[in-house]
Design goal:
mainly beta; 14-stranded parallel beta sheet; about 500 residues; 25-stranded mixed beta sheet; Pectate Lyase C-like
């Protein structure tokens, strides 16, 4: 999705929200030993009652600016007590620490009248937004289309040309009704965005992504939790064509419907690590006022029917993943054009796939990935296992799986190499491995119910210390080397 230019580079549209039936718990108020100046000291007394009861409609940014300057000049933090604070946009000065009363402190964006406008814009070094605490950010998006521009992000950290942001810190963000992303980072190729430390990001009724990383040398995010509709991705790592690269980012928990990790042809991604990933297609994408955040699912179903879409990433690591209900694929490398960057290594600790793929689609599509590794796999299909094909890829991919269970065909596409150990295969009348043109090695595994173990595979095939029930080879295969294995109950090799 091409995005217009604001004070930052064009945003792209590479990869694509949801309903988690769990109430978000309030985070504690910020704790800090730093002396603080209350923003209310700069606000006229006539507005304070409206701030307290949530009826305020004034643009409070000038009062925030004055209070923030005074706080920084005196070496103090800026305290924003419980209440609702309305502004069109606000940019904290360098070195400012903002303290809140947790979720009871609400920042609400006023009507930007159809003009894309990020809300809290951090463009200076050393800003700390409620570190260790939390705040609520309400983007003011309505079903009538107010603030539904795609650019009205809640917190936007951006280093422009010549700017240097060495460090940014933020506590938990409870985002709702946002016409852009909940939290968005970016950096011009001529700027520098260093370390970003962010708490847990919650998103409810979000036009685009809960987390959108377009740049940043290093980042740590405690979690990204989608609690309501979200138009594109729960978390999206995707540099702009003119931005600085994405360096090394780690996220604790991601719970939502889709994950995007997509490098641009000219700008890559170093590494993305996710500790715990839970994706479910049943979580809703549509939001008022527009279906899918302005991207029609009817026109681009592949954007919505894949759990993880990735391309051009050096290293993508997920320690634990559960992916459910995606009709095209659970995981897909979308590298297609010659100029697209190749991904280096994609790996999973434990990977559980349920009800993904179809008779014509794979559950995992690796395309141009150089290395794809899984420690433990559990893969099943939503209908007959006979139509489930776990893996399809490209001749350059080296695939390794170290244990688990797969129903249906394991491989039905040419790979550079496939190596599996400790794998249990339920073939359900289909070949367990088909069209394997590279090197294949199967060890300490069991295969039962397949029509044959290997079909239409002219590559080099080794089976060691494994138990096979059914036929071994069909036509089109060069042969198989057996060592210390059993075939239909008899020793072989």
């Amino acid at each position: 999705m091409e995005r217009q230019t604001l004070a930052a580079p064009d945003r792209r549209r590479f990869i694509g929200g949801l309903l988690v039936a769990a109430a978000a718990l309030a985070a504690p108020a910020c704790a800090s030993a730093q002396a603080a100046r209350s923003v209310l000291d700069a606000v006229p007394a006539a507005l304070r009652a409206a701030i307290a009861n949530g009826s305020v409609r004034a643009d409070l940014a000038p009062y925030f600016d004055r209070a923030a300057r005074e706080a920084v000049s005196s070496g103090m933090a800026l305290r924003v007590p419980a209440g609702t604070y309305t502004m069109l946009t606000w940019s904290p000065p360098a070195g400012l620490t903002v303290l809140t009363d947790g979720r009871a402190t609400v920042f609400r964006q006023l009507d930007t009248r159809g003009r894309g406008q990020r809300f809290i814009v951090v463009s200076a070094d050393g800003v700390r937004l409620w570190p260790g605490g939390a705040a609520t950010i309400d983007g003011g998006m309505t079903a009538r289309g107010t603030n539904a521009t795609g650019f009205n992000s809640g917190v936007y950290v951006y280093a422009g040309p010549g700017a240097r942001i060495g460090r940014f810190e933020c506590g938990d963000v409870y985002g709702r009704n946002l016409g852009g992303d909940v939290v968005e980072t970016g950096c011009d190729a001529r700027g520098f965005l260093g370390s970003c430390t962010i708490g847990t990001i919650y998103g409810d009724n979000v036009y685009r992504n809960c987390l959108s990383v377009t740049s940043g040398a290093a980042g740590t995010v405690a979690g990204v939790i989608q609690t309501g509709g979200c138009g594109l991705y729960t978390a999206d790592f995707e540099p702009d064509p003119t931005s600085a690269p994405i360096g090394s980012w780690t996220v604790g928990t991601v719970r939502g419907h889709r994950l995007g990790v997509g490098g641009a042809p000219a700008v890559g991604i170093g590494s993305v690590t996710i500790r715990d990933l839970d994706l479910d297609r049943a979580r809703p994408s549509s939001i008022p006022p527009l279906d899918g955040g302005g991207v029609s699912e009817r026109k681009t179903p592949s954007l919505f029917n894949v759990g993880i879409r990735y391309a051009g990433v050096g290293t993508l690591r997920v320690d634990r993943a559960s992916i459910r209900g995606f009709s095209r694929a659970a995981i897909e490398d979308i590298t297609e054009r010659p100029q697209d960057r190749v991904s280096g290594q994609v790996s999973f600790g434990s990977l559980t796939i349920a009800n993904c793929g179809s008779a014509t689609n794979y559950q995992v599509i690796t395309h141009k990935t150089r290395q794809f590794a899984v420690d433990t796999i559990e893969a099943s299909t939503k209908s007959s296992p006979a139509i489930a094909t776990f893996l399809g890829g490209d001749a350059m991919t080296a695939f390794t799986v170290r244990g688990g269970r797969v129903s249906g065909r394991v491989v039905s596409q040419s790979l550079g190499s496939f190596e599996a150990s400790g794998l249990t295969i339920s073939g359900a009348g289909q070949p367990a491995f088909q069209n394997v043109r590279g090197r294949m090695r199967l060890s300490n595994s069991k295969a039962a119910g397949a029509s044959v173990l290997i079909a239409d595979s002219p590559g080099s095939i080794d089976v060691e210390s494994s138990d096979v029930t059914g036929g071994l080879l069909s036509s089109g295969s060069n042969g198989i080397r057996l060592r210390a294995s059993r075939v239909n109950g008899r020793a072989a090799g």
